[in-house]
Amino acid sequence: MAEAEWKTCREAPPLNAFCPVRTTLNVLGGKWKLLILSYLLEGPRRYGELKRLVPEITEKMLIQELRELELDAIVQRTVYQQVPPKVEYHLTEHGRRVQPLFEALIGWGQGYLQREQVLTT
Amino acid sequence: MAEAEWKTCREAPPLNAFCPVRTTLNVLGGKWKLLILSYLLEGPRRYGELKRLVPEITEKMLIQELRELELDAIVQRTVYQQVPPKVEYHLTEHGRRVQPLFEALIGWGQGYLQREQVLTT
DNA sequence: CGGAATCCGATTTGATACTG
DNA sequence: CAGTATCAAATCGGATTCCG
C-alpha cells in the first residue's frame, strides 16, 4: 500500500488494515493500557509498584495487559535473578513515543475538568 | 482543589478525582468512542452513516456509546422532524477539542505502522 | 429511517485463594 | 515479590422483533 493511502485511510474493514486510528486503538486501546503507560512514562516500574499505583485493576488484568503490551513491543520486561524476585517493566522506543499523545490527552482532560468545575458549582 | 494539584495529580483512587488522565480515559475510553469520534470530527453524521462507517460495532453498542457521549456532553443529537426520520450527531465544543488528541494518535499509529512494515518484510 | 426491547451465548473482567 | 489458578459476574455481540 502506498504511503499516501494509509496516511489517510478511513475505510471500513477489511480495507482498513493500515488505518492509523484503528491501529493505535488496537494496540493502546485496552481497558487499562494507557493508564499503565502513563506511569511507565515516568520511568521503569516494578510489578508491585504498578499494582499500587493502579489499584482499580486486578492482578490478572494487570499482568494480561502488560503481556499484550510486551507482545506489541511497547514495553519490555526485565527479570533480575535474585531473592526476592524483582521484575521491572520499561518502555521501548515505540512506548516512549506515546509521550505526545499523553500530553494531548492530559490537555483535553484538564479542559474537561474545568468545565466540570463550572457545571457542578 | 488548587489548580497546581489536579494538573499533575497522579494519585491512586480515591484521591484521583481530578486526575486528567483518568478523567479522559473515563470519558473517551469506551471501547468504540474514539473510533466514532474520529468520524464525527470530519463533520456531522447520521446514525446510518456511522453504522456503515464502523461496521465492527453492533447497533446496540453504537447507540449505547452515542448516548454516553451525549451524557458527557461530547456529542449532540439533533432530530429533524420529517418522514422518513433523520437524526444527526455532531460534536460539541468539548468534542471538537479532541482534535489535537487525534492528531497525536494518528501520528503514533503511522510511526507504529512503518515499523510493522519493516518487521513483516 | 432510527431506533427500542429481549433473549442468549460468547467473551471479558473481577474476586479470591494459592504458589515458586 | 511476582505472579497462577479457578470460578463467578459483568459486559458484549448477534439475531430477532417491534415501533413512530
From TrEMBL, chains A, B:
Pfam families (UniProt xref): HxlR
Molecular function GO terms recorded: DNA binding
Family matches, as InterPro entries: HTH_HxlR, WH-like_DNA-bd_sf, WH_DNA-bd_sf
Record's keyword annotation contains ATP-binding: no
Ranges for domain HTH hxlR-type: 19-117
Alphabetical keyword list: DNA-binding, Transcription, Transcription regulation
Nucleus listed as a keyword: no
PANTHER family assigned to the protein according to its UniProt record, in alphabetical order: TRANSCRIPTIONAL REGULATOR (PTHR33204:SF29), TRANSCRIPTIONAL REGULATOR, MARR FAMILY (PTHR33204)
Name used for this protein in its record: HTH hxlR-type domain-containing protein
